[in-house]
Amino acid sequence: MRSPRSTPPFRLPRPSGPDRSSRPVLFGGPRRLAALLLCAAAALFPTAPPAAAAAPPPVPGTLQGYDIGSVFSAGVSSGGYMATQLHVAYSGTFEGSAAFASGPYDCARGQLATALNACMDTIQNLQLATLEQATRDRSAQGQIDPVENLAGDPVYVFSGSGDSTVKRPVADALADHYGRFGARVQYNRSTAAGHAWITPLGPNSCTVTQTPFLNNCGIDAEGQLLGHLFGPVAAPGSGTGGSLIRFDQNTYAPGGSAAALSMGAEGFAYVPASCAQGSRCKLLVALHGCKQGYAYQGFGTRFVEGAYLNEYADTNDMIVLYPQAAPTTTLENPNGCWNWWGYLGDTAYARHGGKQIEAIMGMVRALRGSGTPPPTSGRTVLSSTDAEDGYVKAAADGSGAAVGTLEDLSGLALGRGTDGKVNRSVVSFDTSKIPAGKEITRAWLTVSRSSGSGDPWASPTGNRLQADLRTGCFGACAVEPADWSAAATVAGAARIDAFSSGSAVSTDLSAEALVALNRGGVTQFRLGFTTAPTGTAYLFVNRDAPVTLTVEYR
């Protein structure tokens, strides 16, 4: 094995010989594969970053039950893979995920060579369509929660251009894989970050890949990822307003031995004062990368203190659980990576029954209160009423409005057509089907592209496709010319970002829009661009299937 001077710390040797895709990797392969996965993150514009990490000293304790309403995962590199595994395998529990410097769900398929050559490098094709089908098959067989749960879930993906450990096309595939299940993906690929967790507290410069793998890129990545997962977040606090609990992970390890799973004896949880005092809180499971675990060569709590999550926990009613992987004394996992390729013979590592997954799920259940079920919640997917859907076209000033006639042939029109008219579409939902007596917590629209021409989002630059909401109908519930300019109950209730194929999920409906949903009858949405495209630029949506409105409630 080369010295650290000549070999980047996360670069893994590849099998050599005529069949290097299947030939076993011996000394150094698992060792550096472990090193493989550390991390990254990125993106919000910075507030004034603190000068140094601050955290209360760990205190021995146990995981107690708190009032937790929602659960999310986040991780870097090997921790990014594990964060995705948790989210996909237990999508009934996890409502979203952030994954940095990693690839799609079960990319390795239990093979170290595939992990090395397809899920870090691009020597092998990672076969995204095959991964998608395998995920759907597992869902159908009950090995993971229903993949339908992923639709609309917020997912944050990060890849730095300076990361040569997990290459950009692998992270692209992660975003693509989630998109195939209807997740709302926000993908940050705007920095030159190396393979590292990006934090204002990082001692390293942005582009390097070296211990402690905490890089400062002059951005607040944590603010961006939490904002995408939760919605708007409050500015961070000091990160010292709560308790950092050190607990025994053996309690949650299947078989009672964390070491047997390549996990450490000790894990950590940051509990802000508000959560300890009974506030309804969120739970974020934060997973370090290789060589960042507490038990790895004295690394200690540097990730726990430097990840810039405790600061947001203090001001946003968020508990942060920091499970800990640990190195093995053998060559299986010497750098303390999370299990995303099936080491130690765990063939269920990415699904229900995976040993590390079940250990972490045990911690999550303990924090939600042993024996106390989470708040009753549910999800209803409503299809638009075809007889009440349609589109209206008019001049840019709204004059000369008329009902469009190509819905059956092409779908619902949006943007400026070849006739110079600007199209807006109206879709109608029977929202009385939302269960009575339930509090609506989230809702979003899903549309599917049928055809189009040009890019109306770029005509002019920054144009927005928004959904206006009307409690009841804009006019008569059948589409009529006046619908083009009729007043909305909530203008800009949601937006749909640019997409060129397949389906797109809107942003969550605003709080005002949730209140405006008509629990006693019809709610209509009018889709249209905020500015008339400057030239011919349009799309047709939902020719063969209705628009859907997904509503979550408790």
From TrEMBL:
UniProtKB keywords: Hydrolase, Signal
InterPro entries cross-referenced by the UniProt entry: AB_hydrolase_fold, Esterase_phb, Plant_Biomass_Hydrol_Est
Pfam families membership: Esterase_PHB
Top-level taxonomic group: Bacteria
Compositionally biased tracts (Pro residues): 1-16
rRNA-binding keyword on record: no
Region (Disordered): 1-25
Protein known as: PHB depolymerase family esterase
Organism: Streptomyces zaomyceticus
